[in-house]
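Complex record, two chains
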Amino acid sequence: MTEAHKFVDIRHAQKAYGDLEVLKDISLTVDRGEIVAIIGPSGSGKSTLLRAINDLDSLTGGEVWLDGVQINKDLPYRQYEKHINAMRQQVGMVFQHFNLFPHLSVRDNVTMAPKLLKGLSDKEADKLAEEQLNHVGMLERIDYYPSQLSGGQKQRVAIARALAMQPKLMLFDEATSALDPELVEEVNLVMKRLAEEHMTMIIVTHEMDFAASVCDRVIFMDKGVVVEQGPPSVVFQNPTEERTKEFLRKHLAQHHAQNAAEAAALTAAQTNEGAK
Amino acid sequence: MDIELILKVYPYFLEAAVVTIELSVLTVLLGLICGALAAAARMSRFRLLRIIGAVYVSVFRGTPALIQLFLLYFGGPQIGIQLDAFEAGVIGLGLNIGAYMAETMRGAIVSVDGGQTEAARTLGLSRTQAFRKVTLPQAMRLMIRPLGVNINAQIKGTALVAAISVVELTYTAQRYIGSTYKPFEMFFLAGVLYILIITVTGKGISYLDRKVRLP
C-alpha cells in the first residue's frame, strides 16, 4: 500500500431511521493495536456505530474502511454478499447476550466457522478450539453445551469463537452488561489479556473503571455525535465538554447509589442472620 | 353392542385402516414438501415468490378442504385433470395440509432468536450458510411438536376422502352400516382404529422430540 491509511477509518458515518438521526456525520479513526472505549448514555448511537463497522447495521451515509479496504462498498447484491462475508471474517464481534449457538457444543461453536470458511480439517479445527478455549480458560468445558455454562463462561466461549477466525479487529458490544456482577471480572480479565496482546479493540461499555484501566482512548458519544475523546485520564478526570461532565456525574451517582444499595442489602442480610 | 358383528367385520376395517395410513403418510409427505417450499417462498427476498407463497397459504387455509377435494376430483376433468379418487385425495389433502405446515415452519424459523443469525453472519457465514448451520437446526427442533399437531389433524382429515368414495376407514364404516344397520358398532370400530393410529403417531413424535432435545 503506497498511500498511508488508518487501520479503522470511519468517514462521515450517518444513520437515520426516517427522520430519526441516530448517527450524525461521525468521523473517527483507530490505529492498529489501539484499544478504544466508546461510552455514552443509552440511545447515544454507540452500539449502532459499532454495528455499522461490520455492517450489521448499514449506514445511510458515509464510509467505513478497514486496513485500506472499504467495508460498506456499494456493490450489486451478490458481489456485496461475497465482499462483506470476506470482510467480516476479519472482524470479530462479541455481543451483550453472547449469542452462542445452543445446538452446538462449545467445541463446535468455536470450530464451525473456521471449518466452513477456511476449510480446516477436523483435526486442525480441534487443535484450534483447544488453543482458543485454553486461552480464555474454558478448555475443561469443551464438550459442554452453552446451556450448561454460566453467563461469564458463555461470554468467554463467545470470545474464543470470535478469535478462532483470527480477526484483525475485535468489537465488543456491552460484553459484560448482561452478566451478574460477580461474573464480570472473569470476562474483563480475558479482555485485558487480549489488550496486552495488542489486539485492536473497540469496546462499547458502561464500565468506566474497565475503560480507564484498559483503553488507550475513550470516546464519549451523545445524541449521535462524538462529543469528546481522548486518553481516559483526560476524559474521565478532566473533561472539557459540559455534556461529558454531566454524564460522568450522573453515572457516578448511579454507581454510588447502586453500591450503597448493595451495601445496605448486605448489612440487612447480616443483621437478619444475626437475629436468627 | 354387537361384539360378534365387530369380530366378523374387523378384518375389513383393518384393510381400510391401511388405506387411511397410506393416505396419511402420502398427504403428510406432500404437505411437508409443499410446506417447506411455501415457507421458503414466504421468506424469500424476492417479492414475487413472497406473493405466491402468501396466496397459496391463504387460498388453502381460507376454503374448506372438502371444497378443494370436490374441485379437484369433480371439477378437474372439466379442465383436463383426470385423477382417480385416491390420487385426488392425496393431492388435494396434501396441498391443504401443506398450507398449514408452511405456517408452522415459518413460525418456528422466525422464532429463532435473531442474534443467532447475527452471530453467524459476523463470523463471515453467508446468508445460506447461517440459515443451514444455525437457524434451521434450531427451528427444526422447535417445529417438531407443532408439526405433530398438523399431522394429527391430517390423519383425522383423511376421513374427508370418503366423500369422493376412496375406500378408507370412514367410507368402510359407512358402507357396512348400509348392510348391517348398526351405525354405533361400525363408527365405534372406526373410531378405535383412528385412535390407535393417532396414538402411535403421537408417541413417535414425542420420541423424536425427546431425541433431538438439547441439553
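Note: Chain B has a mean pLDDT of 93.
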